[in-house]
Structures
1.
Amino acid sequence: MSQDELKQAVARAAIDYVVDGAIIGVGTGSTANFFIDELGKIKDRIKGAVASSDATAARLKSHGIAVFDLNDVSSILVYIDGADEITAQGAMIKGGGAALTREKIVSSAADKFVCIADGSKLVDTLGKFPLPVEVIPMAQAVVSRKLAALGGEPRLRLKDGRPLLTDNGCVIIDLAGLTIADAVQLETEINQIVGVVTVGLFARRGADIALLGTADGVKKLTF
Ligand code: 5RP
């Protein structure tokens, strides 16, 4: 099976976690896109969705799914999103699609986080995937120095030769070369750096369930 077929399989499996009549929190990225396409097929069963990025909002709307502002929603029963890496304990690196801050906000409002990913995202230790950190643009240099002091190699994420700007008008610094032994501690430490908006470690509040696509079918991990 191709990686896309594995992503499609977990996207389909995630439909089982959609609660009828509810507003669903929806993540960002290629796996989340497959999920949105599946959600479009059952859109009459749900009230709508809260999106974690402008791109996700646009794709939801293209399927005729109502998109709600988080401020107008009192509860989200389930949030469904991909990950760049996930451990067997449910801690994740996210932000490969630069949507980490809104992903963390929407998932923090949800009762349940269902991570959908192809099996290659399951790792023993987080850090091989460069850790995304969203930063206020004026703080880019000072935050980069502080991130370098943690032992990683900070790289400003570029798009078309210019700093990539997130939906929040911020930049992304990708911190390469880390071996993250204590993800909760590192998440707390990086979030304390002035100028950091969000670090793409989802360990303090990790996934509750992971659906991982493998050649042998969709494997479910519960945390
Ligand atoms: C976006 C994310 C994505 O969930 C993560 O990058 C995984 O993406 P994909 O499903 O394309 O592999 O965190 O900010």
2.
Amino acid sequence: MLRFSSLPAPLDLHCLPQHVAVIMDGNGRWATERGLPRAAGHRQGAKALKELVRCCKDWGIPALTVYAFSTENWRRPTEEVDFLLLLFERLLRQELAEMQQSGVKLSFVGDLSALPPALRQEMQRSHNATLHNQQVHLTVAINYGSRAEITQICRQLAEQAQQGRLNPAEITEELLSECLNTTSLPHPDLLIRTSGEMRLSNFLLWQLAYAELYFTRILWPDFDRAAFYEALVSYQRRDRRFGQVSASQPRVAGQPIPALVSADR
Ligand code: IPE
Ligand code: IPE
Ligand code: MG
């Protein structure tokens, strides 16, 4: 049963995003500011993620996708990469029982084949164990890169066409969407990036085409319930037009598009 008691008043429960994507950035800076090793920032960042999942559960947001490690993050010093991969493995082991208890379903996207076998085993185990949970679907992007994802789909479709199993005319946006790693989820309504950077860093480029973007200077380990609440309030103030003239007056299918009025400047 969902608890809404902790939801502050001004949020409209009926207009919450159904899928939130997050670029959890700023762990290193958080640690450096405190004279700590970067690893300390990553450990603290994991705590912030746990709280975000709790918020999604409390407020009834069914899907959350977080960027944990990009295809470009292999360029970091080996010690940091090794630390991160070990941290993921340890977290999955430690948190599984709580995820089970709170109804979190865990999935992963990215090129998992390049990850250490022990981590992959833990990922598979937690995915299988939480498969039927229904409160929050948490997808963790590990060794994920959107360009690699789209390139892989193009290769796969080209092969099918070459073998005569697919007519190129059948390659539609819908078909491509169905081939994405994130296919079981609706595309994100809201993207949050912390730490003040205003870029996507190769995250869900196709899926975020119509997401509302929210950038905050807060460093990821400091991103708490109040910060998430603020992001949701900002989301609810947006006018999501999807190319139409007004979001509040959706065009009836088949009705002509109102003539564009030339702007008086
Ligand atoms: C995000 O924090 C975590 C990962 C990319 C794994 P960073 O490690 O990028 O932190 P900054 O950007 O260096 O502060
Ligand atoms: C994006 O953060 C990747 C993750 C949060 C996992 P980065 O810190 O790697 O991105 P850039 O390098 O600043 O673009
Ligand atoms: Mg960063």
